[in-house]
Amino acid sequence: MNTLDPLIEGYLTYLLEVGRKVPRTVVDVRCTLRRTVEGFATRRPGVSLWKLALEDYLHWFEAEREAQRSDASLAKDASHLRGLLEYAWRSGRSERNVLDGLNLHDRVKRHAPNFLTFDQAERLVLTCPRRTLAERRDRLIILRTAELCALDVGDVVRERQELTVRQTKGDRPRVLPIPDGLYSELLGYLLDHGKRGALFRTTHLGRRIRSVDVCECVRAAVTRAGLESTVTARTLRHTFATHLMDRGVDLAVIASLMGHRSPHETGVYLHSLPRRAESAVRTLKLGEQQ
User: Fold this and answer.
1) Dihedral sign (CA 169, 171, 177, 181)
2) Phi, psi at 216, each rounded to 5°
3) C-alpha–C-alpha distance, residues 120 and 163, integer Å
4) What domain range includes position 96?
5) Same domain, 130 and 152
């Protein structure tokens, strides 16, 4: 891996060791900074990123947008660059952070995720048989696909009725309580499964299931239930969060259960409660009147 300017390398080390950012995040920031450095090498040769003017960055973002970079990607790039410029300013290498206050997130359109209604989710489960070990396995698929495939039998903590998810998107393991109904099915599944190794295995070769296996399982269940073909494993995950939101569970709790790095990521599920904000304001007004 080619190194960047010493100040940038110092910033990346700071993120990892002081900021406690996960390695994947630091790699992501490195990629953004490397791409930006290479891009400005022809635009403003010899000028460091922390010496560029705001106009330089605005032209850069516009060029990136014309090159079909998405608004979400540009917002992330702006965040990464803003962090570096803040570090450079505090280190005395620049007079100010020219990107301070620039926020491209407002341009990002947030789309409500695909999810199942309670009746649809119930129909999906009821159409999944549980006669064989493979059928019982298929009824238990809920988590992120990658997290699900990485689970081991030892991740099921029977003493506390919990599940430890170790391979997560943000490299931060989390512990999930297992609902009683699901726990009963999980125990039944484990009776014929064995005490070690992958929690979910293929029927024929007995190897750890892969993402493609999960997708096939969900697709088969969706077909049996007569649901739209757009329902995927991700839809089940969104359904879980949406119904928690609908039951009034705190946003921070849902963020923790979903493995989000902050409640901000969970805000997309507010689509399920279009009138909750209005209700909260009405409650506030009533309190003022009293």
Assistant:
1) positive
2) -65, -40
3) 26
4) 6-107
5) yes
